[in-house]
Amino acid sequence: MPLGKRVLDKISQIVREEMNAIGGQEVQMTVLQPRELWEKTDRWDDKKVDNWFKTKLASGTELGVGLTHEEPIVDALKDFVSSYKDLPIYVYQIQSKFRNELRAKSGLLRGREFMMKDMYSLARTQEEHEELYEKAAEAYCRVYERLGIGEITYRTYADGGIFTKRFSDEFQTISDIGEDTIFVHEQRKIAVNKEIMTDENLGKLQIKREELVEKRGVEVGNIFPLETKYTDALDVYYTDEKGEKHSIIMGCYGIGVSRLVGMLAEHFADERGLVWPSSVAPFQVYLISIGRDEEAEKIYDDLTNRGVEVLYDDRADKKPGEKFADADLIGIPLRVVVSEKTGNKVEVKKRTEKDPELIEADTIFEYL
Amino acid sequence: MPLGKRVLDKISQIVREEMNAIGGQEVQMTVLQPRELWEKTDRWDDKKVDNWFKTKLASGTELGVGLTHEEPIVDALKDFVSSYKDLPIYVYQIQSKFRNELRAKSGLLRGREFMMKDMYSLARTQEEHEELYEKAAEAYCRVYERLGIGEITYRTYADGGIFTKRFSDEFQTISDIGEDTIFVHEQRKIAVNKEIMTDENLGKLQIKREELVEKRGVEVGNIFPLETKYTDALDVYYTDEKGEKHSIIMGCYGIGVSRLVGMLAEHFADERGLVWPSSVAPFQVYLISIGRDEEAEKIYDDLTNRGVEVLYDDRADKKPGEKFADADLIGIPLRVVVSEKTGNKVEVKKRTEKDPELIEADTIFEYL
Fold this sequence. Notes:
- The structure is a homodimer.
- Chain A is α+β, with helices and mostly antiparallel strands.
- Chain A has two domains: 2-165 and 220-268, BirA Bifunctional Protein, domain 2, CATH 3.30.930.10; 285-367, Anticodon-binding domain (Rossmann fold), CATH 3.40.50.800.
- Chain A has helices at 2-21, 35-39, 70-77, 126-146, 199-204, 229-233, 257-268, 293-305, 320-330, 364-367; strands at residues 25-26, 32-34, 53-56, 62-65, 89-98, 113-123, 153-158, 168-174, 180-185, 190-193, 213-227, 237-239, 245-247, 249-256, 285-290, 310-312, 334-339, 345-350, 357-360.
- Chain A has a five-stranded mixed barrel. A five-stranded mixed beta sheet of chain A has the order 16-15-17-18-19, with helices on both faces.
- In chain A, helix 1 runs antiparallel to helix 4 and helix 1 (2-21) crosses helix 7.
- The longest helix of chain A is centred in the middle third of the chain and has 21 residues, at 126-146.
- Chain A is elongated.
- The two termini of chain A are 26 Å apart.
- Chains A and B meet through helix 1, strand 1, strand 3 and strand 5 of A and helix 1, strand 3 and strand 5 of B.
């Protein structure tokens, strides 16, 4: 619905800006996927990947409905990457993904169709790969900071999957709504996922068990080393200055953009409704007039002209009390009320505070 | 790929702004569609709608892959529309659609997966419906003007489909690449699709055959009167002031956003490559330095800070001639060259012109 769509778009835009800032190039792959491509990496068979949605062309040819895009990205880059001069690169997309989960649950947190930013890095050497990987991890931290969850989000060691001995990195936000168990190292601002909590792993990570505190976390992103699994399988190599052929080392970097809508909604909500962080709120100001429509319209025009997104609740059939409740319910950061009572001033109230205050009408922009 | 994605996003944004300007509210429906919903309007059966992609949940339940969204939109609005006070409304989305065409062809012009803006209007009376319909038609004209094809795009009478005796309206752009035959009435700036060119229809439209000129057109949008077919079938009505129940009259309004990328590319291209209209070009300026990198970087920073999108071709291994050719090939509106030869000035050349001219470096912004 319209308000949620605005939040989704704002989160996408923050993610886009941070990926662009490290040199990410945005592309868009197709959702429909050819069988042959996925057979090359042995990921077509439902016994190997059990959450594919499959469909068929009118001619009978089987197609997959994109659940991730390592294969198509690597295949598409075949035409652009062959020399050492073409690397390193980051490519990413923000797009609907489809996973045939047996049990979809918790609304936007785990659905069968969701909006995801998936980025892929291609590097010439392990050292270069690690640079790209760390740069992307830092970009992720900036995303969470801008979303208002930087302080409570931990880079978390997790299982690396089947084709690497390295760990993968999850980003986990500490929250009562979390479904994962993680162990937080406050001092180093890192964490360890319960699934890899063995003495051996803690030894590798140089972490002592007693330094860790158990918490519940929501996964808000993950990054994986993919080694050369996909590039080798799809026959994409680069040649160096001397004309020698080498494997390309990949990383992949996911952020569930629609999942973040659900996560931020649930995490920040209070008994009166949603509380959107200002950076992703669908509007910055919820404007209410009590018998002072002319003044309210002036404020609306003034703020809108200055680039502030204002939701002016001009419903004639609703009482002020109902409007106050709706302003809280949909979680707009600042409520502004113009009424006879406020004289030349206006009443402003932050969603996160209980009491309003009076300010001069022409200082709302500065107040924001 | 990145440049095309930028064009796609710019077209989407122009469409979005014009739909918002007439009060359109943006939503996003799911791609995956439940069978039951489409059975209510008798559009599930492959014999009735022959270009569905179908898929299955892990449990075996059949799902459709969204080819259009009348049913889900009306179903979703059930929770928001019941009183005369809730109408009229426009809702729209910009989203990937999937159609199982027997013969996909012409790249982005007719693919099985494409990006579409689909808008739906809901009105209380036929008169109100017609107001919404005309207002949307005018918004479409503004979209085509901003895309640089306003002069050559004609509102064209076409077949209204199975559940209305009215005509539908196509928007057809006159072009050599067009696959439709239309008959243009220059004076009235309208056209008639060949498929409805009967004496009876011309009579209804008060058009004389001899006033028309045959042309080839590319369909760049269409709008349809849907009468009460979907709202009635899905049991969505409104009650008036007296509590009486009435049917809701719908219209639908499509623009193929990715199709427009292909259409604009093919229509404007010349022998040297693409020629993007400035409003949708991936970048406004293609910047080349010939031994004057410092000055070029200053220009880059200056223009970028002023909001101009500059593609700075700083490839060290390419000769100026190759860069000139690439600037033309990818169709950036203005090429700017800084070199020893130009002294304190820079050489600017519009993509649509043959010869460059010299201007002061600090006047590029004004020149744009």
